Amino acid sequence: MTTIKEVAAEAGVSTATVSRVLANKPHIKKELQEKVYNAVKKLNYRPNHIARNLRNRQSSTIGIIVADLGNPFFSLISREIEKAAYAKGMAVLLFNSDEDPNKEAICLELLKDERVSGAIIAPTSKTANSTTKRIDIGIPIVAINRKIQSMDVDSVLIDNFNSAYNLTCHLADDGYRRIGGIFSLDNSTIRARYEGFRKALQDRSIQPVPELELMNNTTEEDGYRAAETLLGMRERPEVIFAANGIIATGAFRNLIDNRIRIPEDIGFVCFDEQAWTPLVNPKITVVKQPTYEIGKTAIELLFSRIAEPDRPIRDIILRGEIIIRGSCKKAGSHAHDSILTDRNCHFGYFSVLRRNSAVTPNYDCFLSPNN
To answer: Which domains does the chain have, with CATH numbers?
Structure first.
């Protein structure tokens, strides 16, 4: 491997001059620059970026740690972050924690060793919910999807409560009364969706039926088994609410395997747009999460934090888009698909400067045609 001393000898300059040229330092004569660049090209020299990072105590790299890279939600967000980082001349290191706090801790240590400029983290449920565990690797951090309760870091979140509330209200207003749901209380985002679901039932004077509200893990197979349980009941639900896309994939597969007609036999809705939800017949009613906006907002917050380390902590809470399709229609209830959104806003957001008190947003909603 070519060394910097060999480049300096080839160019007829000192190693210090080579370092200054490659670091784009000012006030270097053009002829010296050309000598160094020609030597670098001739010898196929590649700078030692690790050594440079140690000297500068920072790199032109950011880290991303997601809780489940197999979830399309996180894959799409990671893609948007990488695109935005690339536009800023930054490289990205991507890690997958698999919802394992121990693996997450290893990823964080690796980011620390790489001296990345900052990190965007979708924390595991245990990390997000812990009031004592702190992520302290000495760099700016932005949390996405879940807030880290034990730390004051910028966050980009989804208004899970109100999105689930609005969708459940729509089901009630569409005439459904036995509304089944597949949730998980171990997952903070899904727990918020369950709370919104329950509040909607209360506000629409629908008595909850506990046996219709199943609490599971968030795998496709858990969704499949939960749907099997609901279908096996003497009195089935009229509609099923799947609390995320992976659960929905398993539940929907079970409905197909059992030759259930949607929505004639049972209605079906889910939280998360999936690749298949707009392709099946009928198309599936969903809460579409703004993955582009999450990635774009997270990287903007991170760069802002890097530039201004002492500015106030911010929570950006994004609003989802509820797309009403044919999977939850009662006969003749709608002439065409619709979009249920927060008033005057598609993928809007509000920003909260972090305070000690909790923020509980409320929105008015309306139903508008999807042209």
So the answer is: 4-47 (1.10.260.40), 56-152 (3.40.50.2300), 160-288+322-343+359-369 (3.40.50.2300)
